[in-house]
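User: Could you check the structure of this?
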Amino acid sequence: MLKHSLIALLLALNIIGVSSFAHAQSHEEKETHNGSQHALATAEEPGEHKGGFDAKEVILGHVKDAHDWHLVDFGETPVTLPLPVIIYNKERGLSVFSSSRFHHGHAAFDGYRLVNSHYLHEKGLDPVKYMDGKVIAVDENDNPTEAEIYDFSMTKNITSMLLAAVLLVILMLNVAKAYRIRGSKQAPKGFQSLMEPVIIFMRDEVVKPNIPGKHYERFTPFILTIFFFILINNLLGLLPGSANVTGNLAVTAALAIISFIAILLSSNKHFWGHIFNPPVPFGVKLILAPVELIGVFTKPISLMIRLFANMLAGHIIILSIISLVFIFGAMNRFAGYGFLPVTIVFNIVMMMLEVLVAFIQAFIFANLTAVFIGQAMEGAHDEHHH
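Assistant: Sure, the predicted structure tokens are below.
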């Protein structure tokens, strides 16, 4: 029964996702036609978008961060949540306004503009310096200036992370409340019975074996927080219209930095002594010491890239499979409808796999963080371990 319910849920999510994907593409084409008259003049340039379905633009538009949150479409009417834009300029001070003032990148407001591909082509700007989706300062002629600004805006990823943090706090407080009411000796009920095996498993199979002595008790809340925070963001990212939080390199970098700080704070003199003065002959020591020092920094980098690459790749694969419907539909209408069942079946399989990957990646990040903290406490490769 649970299996059938899961498949039905995934089928519904895929149908909603395909519908939202189609309307998003239709909405982007309409905005391009209404707000970008310069596109006609540059239509013959190599590599320019000439109309029709642009899979690359739509897929990247779904996985990247944004200053507004496109939720769903009702017919031809998109439902978008404008997010607050918070800009600090050393000369002008703080500016706070809604992202709707940018009209999806087709207008400037209060001396600022949201860069998009059409603005880059219109002004002939370097896409490396002026990245798509970045807020820049402009003059009265809508040309970029050299004014230094700091963007503290509430983007889609930040909003989603705050939502995940609120969910995490609510879930954990409910579990804690159940323990206070029933006590640890009574059998768990409801949501507590679902969460308790996970919490006990993470404590007994991840934290306790890797962090020595009684120190594991001090780090158990930290490891559990990392695990559930990443898991909630991974699962939220699979919903249609959601934010691709853990598929963003800046987010995974921030998580890796937090883990790196925890590793450094838990290190001891034996750990650093082994890195700068390994127990090997002097000639080998000159080679091994720099390698060991580099290894200290590659650990958080591996955490960052592993989570980012796996989650981003899964989203791109799912969106690419959905794109095939519109690619075939552009060639032949009946081919597009004929490929739709194949797309839904493939996406059900991919969504089931992505749910599994969401749990696995959260577990790997938390487990490796515990392993690295334990190594920092014990001195990584002490001789008595061999």
